[in-house]
Design a protein that fits this description.
Blueprint lengths: L2 E4 L6 H12 L2 E4 H10 L3 H12 L5 H14 L5 E4 L5 H13 L6 E6 L2 H9 L1 E4 L5 E3 L20 E2 L6 H15 L1 H9 L2 E5 L4 H12 L1
Parallel strand pairs: 1-3, 1-4, 2-3, 4-8
Antiparallel strand pairs: 5-6, 5-7
Helix pairs in contact: 2-3, 4-5
Bound molecules: BIS(adenosine)-5'-pentaphosphate.
Amino acid sequence: MNIILLGPPGAGKGTQARHLVETRGMVQLSTGDMLREAKNSGTEMGNRVAEVMAKGQLVTDEIVIGLIEEKLTTEKGAGFIFDGFPRTLAQADALAALLSKLGQSLHTVIEMRVDDDALVDRITARSTCSGCGEVYNDHTKPIPADGRCTNCGEQKEFTRRADDNEDSLRTRLMEYYKKTSPLIGYYYAKGDLRPVNGLADIKEVTASIEAVLG
Ligand code: AP5
């Protein structure tokens, strides 16, 4: 089963993807995570990517499609969760072609519906365990008082992302509405779109997604 989690920055795509990995053995393919890895590699491509991401703009289709293609042929599990991909119509077409080449198809596109005020609150309060990537939130899922991650049990640093500031977020939202939101119509027309209320609390969103996936 291959699914897309579609939604603006802070909709909860990463949070829900991690749950599906744990409970269903699916493979999370987050282009954001892949690009952050590339950014830290110090290569020329990594440096170019770092600049674009810091501004909140989209990296070129060519780069992200290349990253996804490589993972699709090397990673194995009970289906792929596309988290943050596709983000443009060109990426959506490329994904359909890549899956078809592998004899696979897309099961469902889960549209995580939220409102912009909630996104700003969530993004500016987010932090991540540098050990395992578990995502926390100052309001809804605070870092444990003993500084030990609830997922990996380690006392690692909890980091904030460089693009989680109001300026970058404004650009990220603009990019989403201009380039990514047309995918809602695209997948609706294909009959693949299933909306869930992303404003509910984390466990309720999980339950809605489970209900869609069956
Ligand atoms: P990426 O890493 O994909 O970031 P994003 O799409 O902006 O999404 P986020 O990771 O910020 O949010 P999320 O929806 O995963 O929310 P989360 O679960 O963390 O992309 C970063 C950059 O990389 C882009 O700007 C672009 O430059 C580049 N890029 C990536 N993919 C690309 C592509 N395909 N093409 C081109 N460029 C690309 O939750 C957020 C917070 O809210 C957390 O603190 C969490 O605890 C909390 N939270 C989650 N759910 C709930 C809930 N239900 N109630 C309350 N709080 C909640």
